[in-house]
Amino acid sequence: MKKIVNWKLFFLLTTVSVVTGVMVMPFTYALAPLPDNAPLQIIIPVQIAQTLVLGALASFFGLFLARHIGFGAPILEGITGGEKRKGTTYPS
Fold first, then answer.
1. For a designed S-S bond to 13, which of 1, 21, 44, 59 qualifies (C-beta 3.0 to 4.6 A apart)?
2. Is residue 63 part of a domain?
3. Is residue 67 part of a domain?
4. Share of residues in the chain with pLDDT > 90 (%)
5. Measured at the alpha carbon of residue 29, what is the angle toward residues 25 and 32, in degrees to the nearest 5?
6. How many domains does the chain have?
């Protein structure tokens, strides 16, 4: 059975998008401060969940369409697939 997408690469890209989304939060709040009565214990988890959903959708559709178009990320696919690409060296 043919795989729809490389799931290890999907989870890697989704995780990276969530981590970078969390890293941008302080900068975002510095540019546009929240009102004093804003419940941060609700806003921050919702914003992380939103980043997770959008990152997962972008990763899935990007990998899905890249496979059909013929594009790819050979270095990341080699790293997540455990196979070495010819002429590519990975740090150990």
1. 59
2. yes
3. yes
4. 55
5. 135
6. 1
